[in-house]
Specification:
Peroxisomal Thiolase, Chain A, domain 1; 14 helices
């Protein structure tokens, strides 16, 4: 069947690197992370975790969302804001940013605009709500307790705020969730079912969302912020958890051209595959990621020599990084020519929003003329011999890039894009 072309017209990011396009590009270009000592992590009973991150200029510590603050106005009704959690608050502002970048007004939305979301829910709110129920009984339970906590909360809240009437769905495939959301949103447009899709990945990134991973020995135990997130490096000790929101506006090429929308990237295709191995560990040969990569190359009709860059999932966990390296060699040979990096060296691992965040960061970087290196990569592990792993940023004129995401249960996704350089967009 003939497929509609799909493009990215808007990006919005609220992350540890910042909450404006200028701040995020600057952080990527200067390789400036936002990792720091977190007392609540370090002083938690029997915790060995000291380093974490936060979203600058946002305050969501209060148990009352009406007390939260950020640098932007939040014109949401009291009824709606009581149903929010930190990540849906971040996501609201990132969505406004993405709509502005795409030159879109909410009032034009009809059944041709849909919303796909990805998050793990809000463990902090769920914990609070259940504690209140057990302490005071069901008659004193927060009436907003379900919609502000469970998986799906992003869809509940954003769908209502932005009056979405098209396709709507939340995705839950662990750290591949927002990548899956992007892939299936692509299908909605390519198959002619929707003209436009808003894709949102978001996470609270607080103690309740991150520290439980310490029980799996997955979090970095480094005491040095500069050495806390070290994908590909033999010194790596696990990942640094993070939160925020990343939003992408997808439109059919015809729809974008009809309204004269800015085009930031072409979405060429995607693929996914499963490991069929263990619930919380990847197949050592990267079996599911091999399938995802091959399926993405086939659907997008991308010839490997034309790939300009690959943003790896690479979280800084030994087993995960190793499996991804094996998968890359299986698909591209022992020495792939294109550069490979992990922006998690700067952002940490944002769990289910990792896919949407890393696609947005890759587009921002390539459009700005550079390929992001893997910051603080000083001692590449011998497991990655043959892979082109630049530490420093490299010059770029846009081009085709891939983005990998891997999650619990062996969920693997590869997304293929062509970034449109700023000079090309202005022609």
């Amino acid at each position: 069947m003939n497929r509609e072309g799909v493009v990215i017209t808007g990006l919005g990011v609220v992350s540890p690197l910042g909450h404006t396009t200028e701040a995020i590009i600057s952080a990527l270009h200067t390789q400036q992370h936002n990792f720091h000592y977190l007392r609540e992590f370090a002083e938690f009973k029997r915790s060995r975790i000291q380093i974490g991150t936060s979203v600058p200029d946002f305050s969501t510590d209060s148990s009352s969302p009406e007390d939260w603050t950020c640098p932007y106005p939040t014109p949401i009704s009291k009824e709606i804001i009581r149903g929010l959690n930190p990540h849906s608050y971040y996501a609201y502002h990132a969505t406004v940013q993405a709509l502005e970048a795409a030159d879109l007004r909410q009032e034009i939305f009809d059944e041709n605009t849909g919303l796909f979301t990805a998050s793990a829910g809000s463990p902090r709110n769920l914990h609070r709500n259940l504690r209140e129920m057990y302490t005071y009984g069901v008659d004193r339970t927060n009436p907003f307790g379900i919609i502000n906590s469970v998986v799906g909360t992003l869809s509940f809240n954003l769908g209502a705020i932005f009056k979405i009437r098209g396709a709507g769905c939340g995705f839950s495939s662990a750290c591949a969730s927002s990548a899956h959301a992007l892939g299936f949103a692509y299908d909605q447009i390519a198959m002619g079912r929707q003209e436009r899709m808003i894709v949102v990945g978001a996470e609270d990134g607080d103690l309740d969302a991150i520290l439980p991973f310490a029980g799996m020995h997955a979090l970095s135990t480094s005491k040095d912020p500069d050495a806390a997130s070290l994908p590909f490096d033999r010194r790596r000790k696990g990942f640094v958890g993070s939160g925020g929101a990343a939003v992408l506006i997808l439109e059919s090429t015809e729809c974008a051209r009809r309204r004269g929308a800015p085009i930031q990237a072409e979405f060429l295709g995607w693929g996914h595959g499963s490991d069929g191995h263990k619930p919380a560990a990847p197949h050592p040969e990267g079996y599911g990621l091999v399938q995802a990569l091959r399926n993405a190359l086939k659907e997008s009709e991308v010839d490997p020599p034309k790939i300009a860059y690959l943003n790896a999932h690479a979280t800084g966990t030994p087993t995960g990084d190793f499996a991804e390296a094996r998968a890359l060699r299986a698909v591209f040979g022992s020495e792939p020519s294109f550069p490979i990096s992990s922006t998690k060296a700067l952002t940490g691992h944002s769990l289910s929003m990792a896919g949407s965040l890393e696609v947005a960061l890759s587009i921002h970087a390539l459009r700005s003329g550079f390929i992001p290196g893997t910051a603080n990569l000083l001692e590449p592990d011998t497991d990655f011999a043959g892979l082109h792993l630049p530490k420093e940023n490299l010059p770029s004129g846009g081009g085709i890039f891939l983005s990998n995401s891997c999650g619990f249960g062996g969920a693997n996704v590869c997304l293929a894009f062509r970034a449109v350089s700023n000079s090309e967009a202005n022609e």
